[in-house]
Amino acid sequence: MAKKTKKQQPGGTPATVALTAAGTAFTVHAYDHDPASPSYGEEAAEALGVSPDRVFKTLVADVDGALTVAVVPVAGSLDLKALAAAVGGKRAAMADPAAAERTTGYVRGGISPLGQRKRLRTVLDASARAHATICVSAGRRGLEVELPATDLAELTGATFAEIARNA
Fold first, then answer.
1. % helix / strand / coil in the chain, to the nearest 5?
2. Checking phi first, is residue 122 left (phi over 0); if not, alpha (psi -120 to 50) or beta?
3. How many Å apart are CA 89 and CA 4, to the nearest integer?
């Protein structure tokens, strides 16, 4: 007997499929990605005409041997010490890009906190609460999804903590 699979909408990603399955309201924003762009997040903010403090990048770090997702504004950077403290760890370092891609199922620059191959512990920077909605990667370069930070936290099991610098 053939295995039933859920029909994906054209252009759908695991992130948008997860949002749709959860019944969460969201908006998809697509733009032409420039492979020469030095910063995927800043490129997204500029292309969408959205303030960089409302566009969040998804970073994967290794905290005491466990991969952990950090979602921080593109206007700032990840404070690794703060991330480690937020999850009760001692040391954090950026994860090996290949391990991050393999574990999440997404490519660098398109890693979404939603619909990951393996659900990782997730921390969302507390600054996200200051906005009605934020934008995060929808699972590929050139595609962002906009939704309330509280919905993102609920769907990913994320906690809020101050983990960004210069945001």
1. 30, 30, 45
2. beta
3. 41
Per residue in 101-148, pLDDT tens?
999 999 988 999 999 999 999 999 999 999 999 999 999 999 999 999
Q: Which amino acid is at 146?
A: E
Confirm if 85 and 75 have CB atoms less than 8 A apart: no
- Tokens coding 163: 């983990």
C-alpha to C-alpha distances, 32 to 108, 139, 146, 164, nearest whole angstrom: 17, 14, 17, 27
Nearest to 74 by CA among 56, 94, 50: 56
Grouping H, G, I as helix, E, B as strand and the rest as coil, residue 137 is strand
Cβ–Cβ under 8 Å, residues 161 and 126: yes
The enclosing H or E element of 103 equals helix 97-104
27-67 per-position pLDDT tens digit: 999 998 888 888 888 889 899 999 999 999 999 999 999 99
What CA–CA distance (Å, rounded) separates 37 from 28? 21
Phi, psi of 24 (to 5 degrees): -85, 135
